[in-house]
Structures are given as structure tokens and as C-alpha cells.
Amino acid sequence: MTDSTTVATSSASEGAPGPAPRQGGRALTGKGSGRAGDKVFLGLSSGSAWLIMVILAGVAIFLIIRSLPGIAANWETSSELNSGPTAGFANFWAYAGPLLWGTIWAAFIALILGTPVAIGIALFISHYAPRRLAGALGYLVDLLAAVPSVVFGLWGIIVIRPFLLPLEEFLNTYLGWLPFFSGTVSRSGSTILAGGVVLAVMILPIITSITREIFLQTPRLHEEAALALGATRWEMIKLSVFPYARSGMVSATLLGLGRALGETMAIALIISPSILFSLTLVTEGENSQTIAANIATNFPIATDLQRSALTGTGLMLFVVSFAVNFIARWIVARTGPGATRKTRTRTPKAKTA
Amino acid sequence: MTSPAIDPTRPTQGIQNSLATGQLPRLINVWVVLGALLVSAGVITLIGGFNITGTLVLTGLLYLIAITVASALVENGRKAVDRLVRGLVTVAFLLALIPLVSTLWTVVSKGIGQLNWSFISQTGGSSFNAETLEVTQRVGAWQAIVGTLEITGIATLISVPIGILTAIYLVEYAQPTNLLRRVVTFLVDVMTGIPSIVAGLFAFALFTLIVGPKAFSGFSASVALCVLMIPIVVRSTEEMLRLVPMDLREASYALGVNRSLTIIKVVLRTAVSGIITGVMLAIARVIGETAPIFIAASFTDNFNANPFSGPMQTLPVLAYSGIKFPGQDIDASNDAAWGAALLLVLLVVVFNLIARIVAALFSPKSGR
């Protein structure tokens, strides 16, 4: 008994196995191999951590290597680039510019439509729904995140497109003087508005789950103080919840933006695009195309150099979404509630799926 | 206490409760909803035929207006705003349920017709009859099922060890101030936001540099999925390892067990159910990825069980290509797409269920 206690104190105090085996016989079992195993295990696990950085760097490096021929090529003279999906552009930037615009435009529409609803849902679950139901209701919203994106795309084709047609006609007829609703209204419904609605549905769960967690972390005393001063529930939320959760809401929105930027299938399946700068929401064939959908649509039929150009646009998408995610995480890390415990405050996010 | 006259919990009828004046009755919400529903159903029917979407939209609007006006009249402006917000927030939640229900309903109703044994067991695709010059198209998903399972399986085999080991490093070895730890934690967060199609392009670029221009293969798609899967596994495992009480580790060190054995035999064993749950959810997440597989493994109608060469078909890609690049028989292609979508949703449901069951059955007995 005394033997084992001395061993225990010595190794516990150092947080690692003791420098030499003590007198206790049992402590010797597999001591030598254990030490080697320790080293191997530490090597393996820190190696994995390094590997993640290598992978991330690899993504950037291989995209750059693969896309250089397409970016550097002379688009005016290259016969390969003057046919198929890349035909008719003066250089790579003339090709990628409208695509980048379309990507940001579609994601922006999705954010405009999705963010208020997502924050409303988060408020409902965290502050309005009956306590006992809140968990189950949150799970329902998280189920949205489990639906594969291609299924949302198919759903958008046969449900959302026809559903939005009357609305699009209405907007075009009565608000056609606005640039957004001008042009010839779509007959099939393959508009960027339909794509934006489906994107909005897809970014709901990520924004909701993050804002919900942050709303729930509002200090109970702040809320009770507001209520005790006679505030209604909404005034309490305005006074105590929103100020506390502001940076979290911003970063959740940015993460939703990141998701919307990279979403491929919904856009590729739903809208009928062309590569141009366009603001119109309710036309077909005159919508801006997004980078991801353009790659998905044209990759199978593209030649090698064209694929290189497509990879170049993919590199731009990578840079933009990396930047958006970087900023979002940076805001969380810097100013998020309980900045010191930030890794733990986001824990429930992993359970959502 | 003894006299009922001063019992505050049971006010005598007829005496007006001063605390309850200037308030709408408790069940006002129910009545307003019912009223709004009736009115809007009537209005919609009068205008141009009953339809359920229009009725529900109008009901929502009417309810919000009515409850705000009623509250502003009987109560006061602040309470009216409060009720309005409560209504808006509830409507937002109901709004989110519509796509969920509608999506599942659409997939099930369109796909259920395809879901039979021959769809699962036969290889789809078109065959050309040289004598009659006719192309017949078979509807089948066997090649896609095999492809999905192989690609996801390989991706899981690669991602899970890397993900778990990284999480172990972050939680067990690195000090909170360690620069590597902070950088990796941050990068893992950022990695979860990488667009899936970029992962596909990365795998394609990598393998074209290694193998040459015809680099489509199932393994390449697995590598693409790994980029998406590793951060999910790291995050969920990290959360689970953090839940393991420090006492267990200290008790183990106190018995003279070294660090690696403590991690393997104590920490991992305690957290195993949570880790498996996380892995299952990660699989469910990547099994539905379309874009990276589409880029890295392309699509094909041929049966190909060799992940290291040639294009491979998968369920999500079958659902995509069946609509976007249909064969000669467009209806048959679309049918195959819907069948594949339903199979995919079922797979996702199965993995989610396994995750829940594992979490429920194998959680540590001592806990809670």
C-alpha cells in the first residue's frame, strides 16, 4: 500500500511517468516498452496535427499548380480555350470576374432570406419554446443539416421552382422598374431567386445552431435583472441577449455565408445561368453563374486546359471562402462570449448534424 | 390560513383581480389563430379557389396583425410589440419545418416507386442493340451503391485515425498555450468551412499530377472526402475527450500507468461511445457529398469495384447526373435519380440512427 502511494505521488506530480522505476514490482510491468510506446504515440498524434496543416497547405499548393496553365494561358489565341465552356473571354480574369460576382450575389440573396429566419428560430428555441420541447425542436432544425445537398437540389427543381413562379411574375409586373425584378420573367422558374431560396434553407441549420448556443449562454442574471425591471420578454432580449450575443451572431452569419459561397448542387441543378454580371432575380438564362456550379456543370465536358481554368476559378472560391471563415472564426475567438472558454462554448455544435 | 376569505390563491368570484386587468385572456392566441384560419380560408376560396399554401400564408399575416392590434388596444404598445415578436419568432420556426417536411415528402413519394430489389441489385445504364438500333435503359443503382460504400469506407479508414490522433494531441498532449495547438484548433475550424467542390478539385489536381490527365478514381474521391471529414472527426472527438473527467486520468497516473496507456485504456475507453457517435455523424455528413466525388471520380454507368482506377458511380452523383446529364431515356434517368436520392436519404438516416443508438447504449455506466 505504501509503495504504490509513493509511486503514485511521484508520477502524478510530474504529470508523466517517473524518471526511474521505483521499488514497486507491479509498476515495472511493460515499463520499458511503455516508455517507447509513449514516444511513438506522442509522435503519431503530433504528426497527425501537423498533417492537418500539410493537407490545408496542400489544397492551396495543388490548386495553384493545377490552375497556373489556365490562368497564364493566352485566352485570345488559344484554340482550346476559345471553344466549349470557356469560349469568348479575353483572359482568365474576364472569365472569373462574373463568376465571382455570381457566387457572392447568390450567397448574398441566401443570407438576406435566411439570416432573419435563422435568428428567429434560434430565439424561438432558446427563449420562447417550452423548456421541455426545446431540445426536440432544436433537433428538428438540425435534421435540415443532415439532408444531402443534392436532395435539396432535386427538391428545388420540382417544388421551389414552380412554387415561386407566381411570386416572380408578381414582382416582375409590379416592381419591374427595380433592376432586380426587371427583364423577361422566367417560364420554368430556373431563376437565381429559386436558387437563393434553396441556399437559404441550407444555411439555416448552421446559423441557427451557433446563434442558439450563444443565446443560451447569456448570463441568467442579466436576463432576470431585465425582467425584474419590468421589461417584457422582447425588451429583455433586446437589453440582455442581443448585446451579449452580437459578435456571435455576426460570426454565425459569416459562417453561413461561407457555406452558401461553396454550395454547389442546389445552384447547379436549379438555375439556368450565363456568365455575366447581372442583378436580375426573376429571369432565366440571364442569371449570374456561381463558381461552384460552373465547375460542376462544365467539368465533365472540359478539356485539360479548360479544366485548368476551372480549377483557377475554384482557387478563387477557396481563397474567398477561406477568408470568410477565417474572419468568422477570428471574431469568435477574439470577442466571443467567454473568450477564455471558447473551445468549450461551441461544444454542442458538434452534436448537431 | 384557516379563513378562506383571505386565501390569496382562491379569489372569490366576481371580484375583479387588479393584476389581471388590462390583459388579453390567456387563450387569446388559440382563438386568434382559429379566427385567422377561418377568415383566410374564406377569403382565399372567394378570390380564386382554395389552396393550402395561400391560406397558411394569409393566416400567418392575419394572426400577426390581429394579435398586435388587439394587444395595442387592450394592453399597451410595449406588450403589443412583445406579442408581435413572439408571433414572428414562432412563424420563423414553422417556416423552417416546411422545407424539412416538404423535402422528405418529395423524396419519398418520388423515389418509393423505384425502390425495389431490381433497382438495388442491378447495374443501371443503357445498352445499344445493334440490330434494332434501339437503346434500352435499365434503371439500377448497384454500381452506385458499391461506389458509395467503397469511397466512403476508404475515406473513413483514412480520416478516423488522423482525426482521433489529432484530437488526442490537442486535448491530451498540447498545453493550452502551445502555438501548434492553437494554430491547429483554429485551422480545423476554418477547414470545416472549405467548399466541398474545392476538396474535389484538390484531389483531382493531386492525382492528375501523379497519374496523368485521366485521373478519375474512387480513391481520389476518398482523398477529397478526407479533407472534409477530418475536421468533423477532430472536432467531435475533441469535445468527447474534454468530457472525460480529469480524475480518471490522475487516478491512472497515480497507479503508475504511463501516458499512452492511460490515453488508450482509460480516456479513449471512457469516450468511445461519444467518439463512435461523432464518426457515424461524420460519415452521414460526407456520404451525401456530391460535388467532390463528381469532380474526383466523375460518373459512369459501368460497374467498377476497383477504387484505384477508372471512374466510379456513387448515389449522390447518380442523383445529380440522372437529372443534369440524362441518357437517351430521360424518364428512366430521372427515375434512377430519385431512387438514388431516396436510397441516399435512407443511408443518412441509418447512420444517424446508429449514432443515436451507440450513444444511448454504450455511454459510460457511471455517468449521471
Question: What do these coordinates show?
Answer:
- The complex is a heterodimer of chains A (353) and B (368).
- Chain A has 353 residues and is mainly α.
- Chain A contains 13 helices and 2 strands, in the order H-H-H-H-H-H-H-H-H-E-E-H-H-H-H.
- In chain A, strands 1-2 form a two-stranded parallel ribbon.
- In chain A, helix 3 (92-128) packs parallel to helix 11 (304-335) and helix 5 (149-174) packs across helix 6.
- The longest helix of chain A has 42 residues, at 31-72.
- Chain A is flat, with a radius of gyration of 27 Å.
- Residues 1-31 and 337-353 of chain A have low confidence and may be disordered.
- By secondary structure, chain B is mainly alpha-helical.
- Chain B is built from 13 helices and 2 strands; from the N terminus they run H-H-H-H-E-E-H-H-H-H-H-H-H-H-H.
- Chain B has helices spanning 28-48, 52-74, 77-111, 117-121, 142-173, 179-191, 196-211, 218-243, 246-254, 259-287, 291-297, 315-324, 330-361; strands spanning 125-129, 134-138.
- Chain B has a two-stranded antiparallel ribbon with strand order 1-2.
- Chains A and B meet through helix 1, helix 2, helix 3, helix 4 and helix 5 of A and helix 3, helix 5, helix 6, helix 7 and helix 8 of B.
